[in-house]
Amino acid sequence: FGDRGTDLLKFTGLTVDPEVKSIDLTDDSDILIIASDGLWDVMGNKEAIQMAQTFIRDHDTASSLTSDSATDKFEEGNNDQLILAARDLRDTAKERGSRDDITVAIVKLR
Questions:
Q1: For 6-15, how does the pLDDT look when each residue is reduced to its tens digit (9 = 90+)?
Q2: Are 19 and 74 in contact (CB under 8 A)?
Q3: Which of 16, 29, 36, 55 fits 103 for a cystine, CB–CB 3.0-4.6 Å?
């Protein structure tokens, strides 16, 4: 624990320093995608956002994971469309041959 083993991590290429980027949100900023490099190695930022937005829009009235009502798909507390869109991005990364771990989370900003 602690610093024990950090030399091994440096040797394998692992780092504890995240890649951080700060941007100003605009009126068009509706979702945030947080993902591991397994996604970003095979897909650019704009493409991921476009795919997620399209998936959410196209499936907004589709059947939900937990709800019977098509009208409450994007209400507070119902994150089914975000979960499904994240899975779609993950699956696309797999199909494109990503060989790294693929973790995707989508956060609704508005």
A1: 555 555 666 6
A2: no
A3: 36
